[in-house]
């Protein structure tokens, strides 16, 4: 048996025995949350599904909770007895600061702090490729590149990664940050950039499983991307997790490229795509 002890408390958790794990998903009513609910159902001793939005009734092995990540007491209650939390809740894209701040900044802090208080040994944080969106697209990105957010949304994901790093180092948590690419419902890419960044539903579920069930890691950053021929994100430094994506966006390439829809000239220069030209008044030549 492989056991992990953490400084968050005396709790000992065998992550390699999934049938004994109690897993919390925040933001469970969102698209990724629904995907994980479907693919992870029955795998763990408990799947606690938490969201401020209404959800489908619980099935065997599931528990439905109402959660507002802005409310620390609400978050703490959801953490009770949990072994691993997958934090998806928050504003899912470009938005105003007055919406990003309470949900993606304060809410993210509440999740990590509540996990610490309730001795949850592992947190999986849904970051985003937009945390590094202003890197030039010709550059292959690994998990050691500097943050380069392309939006306030991307800034909030950089914050979450930094917070996760601190909680791992200071409090002994096991933390994984998933820089998720393009996750869509229906499950297929829809434009040319997504041929690089697409993450299929079954690959998302596999990535979550690998991060939940790996015996022991301290802090990792992983790109959430399928096995796309055109992928420009490098997960070689986290091969030990065992993530082996199965799907390739290239099966959709001919259909998508036949539409011959030109990409915005600023968006085409950077990994963040269409987030990059939004409100842009700078000079691209100054972005090395």
Short précis:
This protein has 288 residues and is of the alpha/beta class.
Written account of the structure:
- Helix content is 28%, strand content 15%.
- Helix 1 crosses helix 6 (201-213), helix 2 packs across helix 3 and helix 3 packs parallel to helix 4.
- Mean pLDDT is 96; it is low at 1-8.
- The radius of gyration is 19 Å and the shape is globular.
- The protein has helices at residues 31-40, 72-79, 97-117, 152-171, 194-197, 201-213, 253-258; strands at residues 4-5, 12-13, 22-26, 46-51, 62-66, 84-87, 122-128, 174-180, 219-224.
- The chain is built from 7 helices and 9 strands; from the N terminus they run E-E-E-H-E-E-H-E-H-E-H-E-H-H-E-H.
- With 288 residues, it is an alpha/beta fold.
- The strands form 2 sheets. It has a 7-stranded parallel β-sheet, with helices on both faces.
